[in-house]
Amino acid sequence: MDAVAVAHREHWGRLVATLIRVTGDWTLAEDCAQDALATALQRWPRDGVPENPGGWLMTVARNRALDVLRRAAVEDRKLREMAMIETPAPRDDRLRLIFTCCHPALALEARVALTLRTVAGVSTSDIARAFLVTEATMTRRLTRAKSKIAAARIPYRVPEGDALDERLPGVLAVLYLLFNRGYDGEPLLADEAIRLARLLGTLMPTESEVASLLALFLLQHSRRHARRDTAGDLVPLDRQDRDCWDRAAIAEAVQILQRTPVEGPYALQARIAACHATAVTPGDTDWSSIALWYDELARVQPTPVIALNRAVAHGYAFGAGRGLELLEHTRDIRDTYPMVIAVEADLTARAGDHQRAKDLFREAAAAAGEGPERRALLARAAEL
Fold this sequence. Notes:
By secondary structure, this protein is mainly α. Among the domains are: 2-89; 90-205, no CATH class. It has 19 helices and no strands. It has helices at 2-23, 26-47, 53-72, 76-84, 91-101, 108-119, 124-130, 135-151, 162-183, 187-203, 208-221, 247-258, 265-277, 287-300, 304-318, 320-327, 339-350, 354-368, 372-383. The radius of gyration is 24 Å and the shape is elongated.
Protein backbone atom coordinates (compact mmCIF):
# COMPACT_ATOMS: atom_id res chain seq x y z
CA MET A 1 0.00 0.00 0.00
CA ASP A 2 1.47 3.36 -1.06
CA ALA A 3 0.34 5.20 2.09
CA VAL A 4 2.16 2.71 4.31
CA ALA A 5 5.30 2.97 2.17
CA VAL A 6 5.20 6.76 2.49
CA ALA A 7 4.63 6.49 6.25
CA HIS A 8 7.58 4.10 6.52
CA ARG A 9 9.90 6.56 4.80
CA GLU A 10 8.66 9.59 6.74
CA HIS A 11 8.16 8.18 10.23
CA TRP A 12 10.42 5.17 10.71
CA GLY A 13 13.30 7.20 12.15
CA ARG A 14 10.99 9.03 14.54
CA LEU A 15 9.39 5.82 15.79
CA VAL A 16 12.67 4.01 16.39
CA ALA A 17 14.40 7.04 17.87
CA THR A 18 11.73 7.64 20.50
CA LEU A 19 11.38 3.97 21.43
CA ILE A 20 15.14 3.59 21.80
CA ARG A 21 15.30 6.67 24.02
CA VAL A 22 12.59 5.39 26.34
CA THR A 23 13.27 1.65 26.40
CA GLY A 24 17.02 1.64 25.82
CA ASP A 25 16.48 -1.49 23.69
CA TRP A 26 17.35 -1.15 19.99
CA THR A 27 15.89 -4.51 18.97
CA LEU A 28 12.63 -3.90 20.83
CA ALA A 29 12.34 -0.45 19.25
CA GLU A 30 12.80 -1.77 15.71
CA ASP A 31 10.46 -4.74 16.30
CA CYS A 32 7.68 -2.51 17.65
CA ALA A 33 8.06 -0.02 14.80
CA GLN A 34 7.89 -2.90 12.32
CA ASP A 35 4.80 -4.31 14.07
CA ALA A 36 3.09 -0.92 13.81
CA LEU A 37 3.72 -0.80 10.04
CA ALA A 38 2.47 -4.37 9.65
CA THR A 39 -0.70 -3.42 11.51
CA ALA A 40 -1.13 -0.41 9.21
CA LEU A 41 -0.92 -2.72 6.19
CA GLN A 42 -3.83 -4.69 7.61
CA ARG A 43 -6.03 -1.87 8.86
CA TRP A 44 -5.54 1.14 6.57
CA PRO A 45 -6.97 -0.51 3.43
CA ARG A 46 -10.07 -1.41 5.44
CA ASP A 47 -10.47 1.61 7.75
CA GLY A 48 -8.78 4.32 5.69
CA VAL A 49 -5.53 6.21 6.25
CA PRO A 50 -5.66 8.16 9.56
CA GLU A 51 -5.37 11.96 9.54
CA ASN A 52 -2.12 11.73 11.49
CA PRO A 53 -0.30 8.61 10.22
CA GLY A 54 2.78 9.27 12.34
CA GLY A 55 0.74 9.66 15.53
CA TRP A 56 -1.24 6.51 14.70
CA LEU A 57 1.93 4.49 14.17
CA MET A 58 3.48 5.84 17.37
CA THR A 59 0.41 4.83 19.38
CA VAL A 60 0.45 1.29 17.99
CA ALA A 61 4.22 0.95 18.48
CA ARG A 62 3.96 2.36 22.01
CA ASN A 63 1.21 -0.08 22.96
CA ARG A 64 3.22 -2.98 21.57
CA ALA A 65 6.28 -1.88 23.56
CA LEU A 66 4.15 -1.50 26.71
CA ASP A 67 2.91 -5.07 26.35
CA VAL A 68 6.45 -6.39 26.01
CA LEU A 69 7.75 -4.32 28.92
CA ARG A 70 4.88 -5.37 31.18
CA ARG A 71 5.53 -9.02 30.46
CA ALA A 72 9.22 -8.41 31.22
CA ALA A 73 8.24 -6.70 34.50
CA VAL A 74 10.55 -3.72 33.94
CA GLU A 75 10.72 -0.77 36.29
CA ASP A 76 7.73 1.56 36.57
CA ARG A 77 9.66 4.56 35.20
CA LYS A 78 9.97 3.10 31.72
CA LEU A 79 6.31 2.08 31.71
CA ARG A 80 5.24 5.57 32.71
CA GLU A 81 7.39 7.16 29.99
CA MET A 82 6.01 4.76 27.38
CA ALA A 83 2.44 5.53 28.41
CA MET A 84 3.06 9.27 27.91
CA ILE A 85 4.17 8.94 24.26
CA GLU A 86 1.33 10.13 22.04
CA THR A 87 2.92 11.92 19.08
CA PRO A 88 5.88 11.36 16.75
CA ALA A 89 9.26 11.82 18.36
CA PRO A 90 10.74 15.31 18.65
CA ARG A 91 13.59 16.26 16.37
CA ASP A 92 16.16 15.74 19.09
CA ASP A 93 15.40 12.02 19.21
CA ARG A 94 16.24 11.53 15.55
CA LEU A 95 19.37 13.62 15.91
CA ARG A 96 20.42 11.52 18.91
CA LEU A 97 19.90 8.40 16.84
CA ILE A 98 22.03 9.67 13.94
CA PHE A 99 24.92 10.62 16.22
CA THR A 100 24.71 7.31 18.08
CA CYS A 101 24.74 5.26 14.87
CA CYS A 102 27.73 7.27 13.63
CA HIS A 103 29.78 7.03 16.83
CA PRO A 104 33.53 6.77 16.09
CA ALA A 105 33.80 3.70 18.33
CA LEU A 106 32.13 1.74 15.52
CA ALA A 107 33.85 0.74 12.30
CA LEU A 108 32.95 3.03 9.39
CA GLU A 109 31.03 0.38 7.45
CA ALA A 110 29.14 -0.58 10.61
CA ARG A 111 28.14 3.07 11.03
CA VAL A 112 26.85 3.19 7.46
CA ALA A 113 24.89 -0.05 7.79
CA LEU A 114 23.44 0.87 11.19
CA THR A 115 22.39 4.30 9.94
CA LEU A 116 20.65 2.73 6.94
CA ARG A 117 18.81 0.18 9.06
CA THR A 118 17.91 2.22 12.12
CA VAL A 119 17.52 5.78 10.87
CA ALA A 120 16.40 5.16 7.29
CA GLY A 121 14.57 1.88 7.79
CA VAL A 122 16.25 0.15 4.83
CA SER A 123 15.75 -3.61 4.99
CA THR A 124 18.64 -5.80 6.09
CA SER A 125 18.46 -7.69 2.79
CA ASP A 126 18.85 -4.47 0.78
CA ILE A 127 21.79 -3.36 2.92
CA ALA A 128 23.41 -6.77 2.51
CA ARG A 129 23.06 -6.56 -1.26
CA ALA A 130 24.67 -3.10 -1.29
CA PHE A 131 27.61 -4.41 0.78
CA LEU A 132 27.87 -7.59 -1.32
CA VAL A 133 27.36 -9.92 1.65
CA THR A 134 24.62 -12.37 2.65
CA GLU A 135 21.65 -11.22 4.70
CA ALA A 136 22.77 -13.45 7.57
CA THR A 137 26.21 -11.83 7.57
CA MET A 138 24.70 -8.35 7.60
CA THR A 139 22.33 -9.33 10.41
CA ARG A 140 25.31 -10.40 12.51
CA ARG A 141 27.16 -7.17 11.75
CA LEU A 142 24.20 -5.06 12.80
CA THR A 143 23.74 -7.12 15.95
CA ARG A 144 27.41 -6.70 16.85
CA ALA A 145 27.20 -2.95 16.29
CA LYS A 146 24.18 -2.62 18.60
CA SER A 147 25.87 -4.84 21.18
CA LYS A 148 28.99 -2.67 21.09
CA ILE A 149 26.88 0.43 21.68
CA ALA A 150 25.38 -1.22 24.74
CA ALA A 151 28.62 -2.75 26.05
CA ALA A 152 30.63 0.45 25.58
CA ARG A 153 27.80 2.50 27.11
CA ILE A 154 27.86 4.82 24.12
CA PRO A 155 25.60 7.71 25.17
CA TYR A 156 22.33 8.21 23.31
CA ARG A 157 22.64 11.95 22.92
CA VAL A 158 23.79 14.77 20.67
CA PRO A 159 27.21 16.07 21.74
CA GLU A 160 27.50 19.72 22.68
CA GLY A 161 30.05 22.49 22.24
CA ASP A 162 33.49 21.37 21.07
CA ALA A 163 32.37 17.73 21.13
CA LEU A 164 29.71 18.50 18.51
CA ASP A 165 32.30 20.18 16.28
CA GLU A 166 34.50 17.09 16.63
CA ARG A 167 31.75 14.55 15.92
CA LEU A 168 29.81 16.27 13.11
CA PRO A 169 32.49 15.61 10.43
CA GLY A 170 32.24 11.90 11.26
CA VAL A 171 28.48 11.95 10.74
CA LEU A 172 28.89 13.77 7.43
CA ALA A 173 31.59 11.29 6.38
CA VAL A 174 29.10 8.44 6.86
CA LEU A 175 26.58 10.16 4.60
CA TYR A 176 29.34 10.95 2.07
CA LEU A 177 30.44 7.31 1.94
CA LEU A 178 26.82 6.22 1.67
CA PHE A 179 26.23 8.54 -1.29
CA ASN A 180 29.41 7.45 -3.05
CA ARG A 181 28.38 3.80 -2.78
CA GLY A 182 25.12 4.72 -4.44
CA TYR A 183 26.77 6.95 -7.04
CA ASP A 184 29.01 4.05 -8.04
CA GLY A 185 26.12 1.71 -8.77
CA GLU A 186 23.50 1.29 -6.01
CA PRO A 187 20.90 4.07 -6.57
CA LEU A 188 18.99 3.16 -3.39
CA LEU A 189 21.96 4.26 -1.28
CA ALA A 190 22.37 7.57 -3.09
CA ASP A 191 18.68 8.32 -2.63
CA GLU A 192 18.89 7.48 1.08
CA ALA A 193 22.00 9.63 1.52
CA ILE A 194 20.13 12.59 0.03
CA ARG A 195 17.10 11.94 2.24
CA LEU A 196 19.26 11.68 5.37
CA ALA A 197 21.14 14.85 4.41
CA ARG A 198 17.80 16.65 4.11
CA LEU A 199 16.77 15.32 7.52
CA LEU A 200 20.05 16.40 9.09
CA GLY A 201 19.61 19.82 7.49
CA THR A 202 16.20 20.29 9.15
CA LEU A 203 17.65 19.20 12.49
CA MET A 204 20.80 21.36 12.23
CA PRO A 205 19.78 24.33 10.05
CA THR A 206 22.68 26.57 11.11
CA GLU A 207 25.44 24.10 10.15
CA SER A 208 26.80 25.25 6.79
CA GLU A 209 28.63 22.01 6.04
CA VAL A 210 25.39 20.05 6.42
CA ALA A 211 23.69 22.28 3.85
CA SER A 212 26.75 22.16 1.59
CA LEU A 213 26.81 18.36 1.68
CA LEU A 214 23.16 18.24 0.58
CA ALA A 215 23.94 20.65 -2.27
CA LEU A 216 26.90 18.49 -3.32
CA PHE A 217 24.73 15.36 -3.37
CA LEU A 218 22.05 17.08 -5.45
CA LEU A 219 24.58 18.36 -7.99
CA GLN A 220 26.29 14.99 -8.41
CA HIS A 221 23.04 13.04 -8.50
CA SER A 222 21.58 15.40 -11.10
CA ARG A 223 23.77 13.69 -13.71
CA ARG A 224 22.81 10.12 -12.84
CA HIS A 225 20.82 9.51 -16.05
CA ALA A 226 23.63 10.75 -18.28
CA ARG A 227 26.63 9.02 -16.69
CA ARG A 228 26.25 5.76 -18.64
CA ASP A 229 25.31 4.91 -22.22
CA THR A 230 22.85 2.22 -23.30
CA ALA A 231 25.56 -0.43 -22.95
CA GLY A 232 26.24 0.60 -19.36
CA ASP A 233 29.59 2.18 -20.14
CA LEU A 234 30.71 5.38 -18.44
CA VAL A 235 30.26 8.62 -20.40
CA PRO A 236 32.85 11.34 -19.65
CA LEU A 237 31.43 14.56 -18.23
CA ASP A 238 32.24 16.60 -21.34
CA ARG A 239 30.35 14.13 -23.54
CA GLN A 240 27.21 13.69 -21.46
CA ASP A 241 23.80 14.68 -22.83
CA ARG A 242 23.10 17.71 -20.65
CA ASP A 243 19.42 17.59 -21.55
CA CYS A 244 19.30 14.51 -19.32
CA TRP A 245 20.58 16.39 -16.29
CA ASP A 246 18.08 17.10 -13.52
CA ARG A 247 17.78 20.88 -13.75
CA ALA A 248 15.43 21.13 -10.77
CA ALA A 249 18.01 19.45 -8.51
CA ILE A 250 20.74 21.74 -9.85
CA ALA A 251 18.60 24.83 -9.22
CA GLU A 252 17.86 23.70 -5.65
CA ALA A 253 21.54 23.11 -4.97
CA VAL A 254 22.52 26.52 -6.36
CA GLN A 255 19.94 28.20 -4.12
CA ILE A 256 21.35 26.35 -1.11
CA LEU A 257 24.88 27.50 -1.92
CA GLN A 258 23.79 31.10 -2.44
CA ARG A 259 22.68 31.30 1.19
CA THR A 260 25.47 29.13 2.64
CA PRO A 261 28.94 30.43 3.54
CA VAL A 262 32.09 28.61 2.44
CA GLU A 263 33.25 27.10 5.71
CA GLY A 264 34.61 23.64 4.96
CA PRO A 265 35.57 20.98 2.41
CA TYR A 266 32.00 20.06 1.45
CA ALA A 267 31.24 23.70 0.66
CA LEU A 268 34.29 23.80 -1.62
CA GLN A 269 33.41 20.51 -3.34
CA ALA A 270 29.84 21.71 -3.86
CA ARG A 271 31.00 24.89 -5.56
CA ILE A 272 33.26 22.91 -7.85
CA ALA A 273 30.33 20.67 -8.75
CA ALA A 274 28.16 23.75 -9.33
CA CYS A 275 30.67 25.11 -11.85
CA HIS A 276 30.26 21.93 -13.87
CA ALA A 277 26.49 21.64 -13.44
CA THR A 278 25.67 25.20 -14.46
CA ALA A 279 27.75 25.17 -17.65
CA VAL A 280 25.41 25.02 -20.65
CA THR A 281 28.08 23.34 -22.78
CA PRO A 282 31.48 21.83 -21.90
CA GLY A 283 33.12 24.90 -23.41
CA ASP A 284 31.30 27.14 -20.96
CA THR A 285 32.87 25.44 -17.93
CA ASP A 286 34.61 27.97 -15.69
CA TRP A 287 37.85 26.04 -15.24
CA SER A 288 39.68 29.01 -13.76
CA SER A 289 37.22 29.16 -10.85
CA ILE A 290 37.36 25.39 -10.47
CA ALA A 291 41.16 25.53 -10.28
CA LEU A 292 40.99 28.22 -7.59
CA TRP A 293 38.44 26.22 -5.57
CA TYR A 294 40.73 23.19 -5.81
CA ASP A 295 43.67 25.27 -4.58
CA GLU A 296 41.68 26.05 -1.44
CA LEU A 297 40.39 22.48 -1.09
CA ALA A 298 43.93 21.10 -1.34
CA ARG A 299 44.91 23.47 1.46
CA VAL A 300 42.18 22.35 3.89
CA GLN A 301 42.05 18.69 2.81
CA PRO A 302 45.45 17.72 1.36
CA THR A 303 44.74 14.21 0.04
CA PRO A 304 46.27 12.55 -3.03
CA VAL A 305 42.90 12.30 -4.79
CA ILE A 306 42.24 16.01 -4.35
CA ALA A 307 45.75 16.71 -5.61
CA LEU A 308 44.90 14.63 -8.68
CA ASN A 309 41.69 16.56 -9.34
CA ARG A 310 43.55 19.82 -8.81
CA ALA A 311 46.02 18.80 -11.52
CA VAL A 312 43.11 18.15 -13.90
CA ALA A 313 41.54 21.52 -13.15
CA HIS A 314 44.80 23.42 -13.64
CA GLY A 315 45.45 21.48 -16.83
CA TYR A 316 42.16 22.64 -18.31
CA ALA A 317 42.39 26.17 -16.92
CA PHE A 318 46.04 27.00 -17.56
CA GLY A 319 47.32 24.44 -20.04
CA ALA A 320 48.22 20.75 -20.12
CA GLY A 321 51.81 21.48 -19.10
CA ARG A 322 50.69 23.02 -15.82
CA GLY A 323 48.48 20.00 -15.15
CA LEU A 324 51.32 17.54 -15.80
CA GLU A 325 53.56 19.54 -13.50
CA LEU A 326 51.06 19.27 -10.62
CA LEU A 327 50.49 15.60 -11.39
CA GLU A 328 53.97 14.87 -10.08
CA HIS A 329 52.54 15.29 -6.55
CA THR A 330 50.39 12.16 -7.01
CA ARG A 331 53.14 9.68 -7.87
CA ASP A 332 52.71 7.90 -4.52
CA ILE A 333 49.26 6.60 -5.48
CA ARG A 334 50.01 5.80 -9.11
CA ASP A 335 50.37 2.05 -8.50
CA THR A 336 47.14 1.73 -6.51
CA TYR A 337 44.92 4.28 -8.25
CA PRO A 338 44.71 3.77 -12.04
CA MET A 339 42.98 7.13 -12.48
CA VAL A 340 46.36 8.83 -12.04
CA ILE A 341 47.56 7.14 -15.22
CA ALA A 342 44.32 8.02 -17.01
CA VAL A 343 44.69 11.68 -16.05
CA GLU A 344 48.29 11.69 -17.26
CA ALA A 345 47.08 10.15 -20.52
CA ASP A 346 44.42 12.82 -20.99
CA LEU A 347 46.79 15.69 -20.25
CA THR A 348 49.46 14.15 -22.48
CA ALA A 349 46.97 13.92 -25.34
CA ARG A 350 46.00 17.55 -24.85
CA ALA A 351 49.69 18.45 -24.92
CA GLY A 352 49.89 16.85 -28.37
CA ASP A 353 51.83 13.61 -27.71
CA HIS A 354 49.16 11.20 -28.94
CA GLN A 355 51.35 8.10 -29.13
CA ARG A 356 52.41 8.34 -25.50
CA ALA A 357 48.86 9.21 -24.49
CA LYS A 358 47.57 6.10 -26.27
CA ASP A 359 50.08 3.92 -24.43
CA LEU A 360 49.09 5.51 -21.11
CA PHE A 361 45.37 4.94 -21.71
CA ARG A 362 46.10 1.27 -22.38
CA GLU A 363 48.24 1.06 -19.24
CA ALA A 364 45.43 2.61 -17.19
CA ALA A 365 42.91 0.18 -18.72
CA ALA A 366 45.08 -2.81 -17.79
CA ALA A 367 45.35 -1.56 -14.21
CA ALA A 368 41.60 -0.92 -13.96
CA GLY A 369 40.66 -4.57 -14.53
CA GLU A 370 37.37 -5.60 -16.11
CA GLY A 371 34.35 -3.32 -16.20
CA PRO A 372 33.05 -0.05 -17.66
CA GLU A 373 36.11 1.98 -16.62
CA ARG A 374 38.40 -0.32 -18.59
CA ARG A 375 36.19 -0.11 -21.67
CA ALA A 376 36.08 3.69 -21.47
CA LEU A 377 39.88 3.90 -21.24
CA LEU A 378 40.37 1.56 -24.18
CA ALA A 379 37.89 3.63 -26.18
CA ARG A 380 39.97 6.74 -25.52
CA ALA A 381 43.08 4.90 -26.68
CA ALA A 382 41.30 3.83 -29.86
CA GLU A 383 40.31 7.41 -30.60
CA LEU A 384 43.98 8.37 -30.65
